[in-house]
Amino acid sequence: MFFQRAPADKSYCITKELLMTERTFKKDLEVITQSFQNAVNSVMPDYLSHLMFSTLCPIYNFHCNFIRNIEQRIISWEGKYNTPVNPESQKIGNVLLELDTVLPIYRTYLDRLEEMLSELELTLKRNREFEQLYKEFEAEKTSVFFCIFQDNLQKLIELQRDLVGIDSLIHPDREFIREGCLQKFSRKGYQQRMFFLFSDMLIYTSRTATSLLQFKVHGQLPLRGMMVEESDISKVAVANSFTIYGGNKCILVAASSEEEKDKWIEDLNFSISMAKKQTDDRLKYGSIRSTTSEY
């Protein structure tokens, strides 16, 4: 049987994961609506400019505001402990309802997408100056690949601040993969933990008992040599569970749904396979300090 903490904790973890996804999407939109627009706007035909930016710019502006609202909700999620908390500040549904306002713009964007791509292709063939600026933009630091690198570095900096009890998280060869909530089995039963998957290790944490938006690190497992095994439902009492072996440790976890379990197993196995291809030992695992071990 699941041992569950306050429902707000699960909602909080989901909201944090949503915020991370939104920030990444916002960065991708910035490449088009700001960097690309500024680079080619002087020679881009008005019709093509209207096709692209009359929908993408409003979408970008919406997500900027949406992120601010999510951040504000997380900040107000919980005041100081032992003080009354407004129940409305521990909900995210009313914030998500804001998505209804942007759906018509997305529909317009999708309706125009085929025409937009065709017009872009024609302009590249007919307008030499536009073609030159387009190629220069692809080669500049504002390319998508550079933005992905910058996003990853920014995420590592944020996690170095938010994860309490681990040193040296930031490394140029370390890539952040994903985060999410799983129930982890310990001596106290199943407890909710926040997991962070990187290109070289898996970290599991719990939310700190402070008003700060931080997580206490309980353990880490290296991806090299790691194995993931789906649990036999006839031998475990909890559905959607799987076992992770790594670094002389074995942890049993359970996801909230079969879909979530399959996604975690897929991401873990892919990251494990990529870690096996790394032949150097430049990455050093951060040391865990003053944490509570779980078995």
From TrEMBL:
Pfam families assigned: PH, RhoGEF
Gene3D superfamilies: Dbl homology (DH) domain (1.20.900.10), Pleckstrin-homology domain (PH domain)/Phosphotyrosine-binding domain (PTB) (2.30.29.30)
Coiled coil: 110-140
Keywords: Coiled coil
Domain PH: 175-273
InterPro entries per the UniProt record, alphabetical: DBL_dom_sf, DH_dom, PH-like_dom_sf, PH_domain, RAC1-GEF
Keyword Coiled coil: yes
DH domain ranges (all copies): 10-178
An example molecular function term from Gene Ontology annotations: guanyl-nucleotide exchange factor activity
SUPFAM superfamilies: DBL homology domain (DH-domain), PH domain-like
Name this polypeptide is given: PH domain-containing protein
Biological source species: Octopus bimaculoides (California two-spotted octopus)
